[in-house]
Design goal:
Blueprint: E1 16-21, H1 25-41, E2 49-54, H2 60-69, E3 75-83, H3 89-107, E4 112-119, H4 122-127, E5 129-131, E6 134-135, H5 136-153
Parallel strand pairs: 1-2, 1-3, 3-4
Antiparallel strand pairs: 5-6
Helix pairs in contact: 1-5, 2-3
The structure holds 5-nitro-6-ribityl-amino-2,4(1H,3H)-pyrimidinedione.
The site of 5-nitro-6-ribityl-amino-2,4(1H,3H)-pyrimidinedione (INI) has 16 residues, from strand 3 and helix 3.
Length: about 150
């Protein structure tokens, strides 16, 4: 009979660090709302959540790294929105942000969760920020809780 180990969705007593970008704040404010709501509804205390705002998604990896190495958090969440629109800048920002956050996660003792939208249009971003396609900030919160709980069990 195998041994199964699953993380549970109970955030009671857990501490979270959230890095969120101001760029496209119309979207990222919604992601942050969804994220905080999900953390609190799963038992996290308001006072156990620290939110750090950065200018854009490109700045997320550096701050995520500081949070992940601070030794104060059970999980760290990076929230942002990179929207292609008309700018070729998109590919560089999207790639550096996601690669950077993944790298921090691989080097970190605590879970680092990617909650950065990369979409072709503003409409797609709106759909993922609390409308048709749910709220990716809330999804990131649930992943953070599950991974933080799993880490304690392993
Ligand atoms: N930052 C974002 O978070 N999303 C974007 O869509 C975006 N675009 O398209 O340019 C963006 N650019 C700013 C970037 O993240 C940095 O803040 C800036 O380059 C300074 O380092």
């Amino acid at each position: 009979m195998p041994t199964y180990i699953d993380g549970q969705l109970n955030a009671r007593g857990m501490k979270f660090g959230i890095a969120v970008s101001r760029f496209n704040h119309f979207i990222t404010d919604r992601l942050l709302e969804g994220c905080l709501d999900a953390l609190i509804r799963h038992g996290a205390a308001d006072s156990d959540v620290t939110v750090v705002r950065v200018p854009g998604a490109f700045e997320l990896p550096a701050v995520t790294k500081r949070l992940a190495t601070a030794g104060r958090f059970d999980a760290v969440i990076a929230l942002g929105a990179v929207i292609r629109g008309e700018t070729p800048h998109f590919d560089y920002i999207a790639s550096e942000a996601t690669k950077g956050i993944a790298q921090v996660g691989m080097q970190s003792d605590v879970p680092v969760i990617l909650g950065v939208l990369t979409t072709d249009t503003l409409e797609q971003a709106i759909e993922r920020a609390g409308t048709k396609a749910g709220n990716k900030g809330a999804d990131a919160a649930l992943t953070a809780i599950e991974m933080a709980d799993l880490r304690k069990r392993l």
